[in-house]
Amino acid sequence: MTDGEGLALLLLVLLAARRSAHVELAAGWVWPVPSWNGLLPQISQAFEDPRHLGVDILYRAAGRWTAPADTPIVAANAGTVTQVYRSPRGWSVVLDHGPVFSFYQHMESTTVKRGQRVAAGERLGTMGADPLDAQHVRHLHFELWQRVGADVARLDPQPIMAPWSVLSWIQ
Predict the structure, then answer these.
(1) What is the CATH number of the domain that holds 114?
(2) Does 162 score more than 90 pLDDT?
(3) How far is CA 30 from the centre of its chain?
């Protein structure tokens, strides 16, 4: 086998691992957006590899997607904050949960610092809108990443989140 063939085989193995990665996370996990005024958070845009590598979460009320100001974003499970940064897409937070990472994007503000330990359901910040989105709809972009050797695979959060608890938020 030539070096080129070996590299091609390695890339195929890594790509297969990225596509087939699956994990079940149920006990102790919560939706990163709590219920509000009797409305459950819903996924408005699904995972679509490679175009949209997470899900968008907000509320559906009176036939439209919405979220009030100061909607809390909470940790989906206990973990360590590995990243807190502002980008052109708003504030982002990454939590390390051991076998997986959770990624929260389009936040208006954050309340955590890098290296901080957080509990499941602990507030990470507030929901914002993607500044690059012309409609400026307030929502959370949420991703799950799984370690696959030295690589990280992006997981479709929707089926994994189905058994998770939903916390309540009273404004």
Answers:
(1) 2.70.70.10
(2) yes
(3) 12
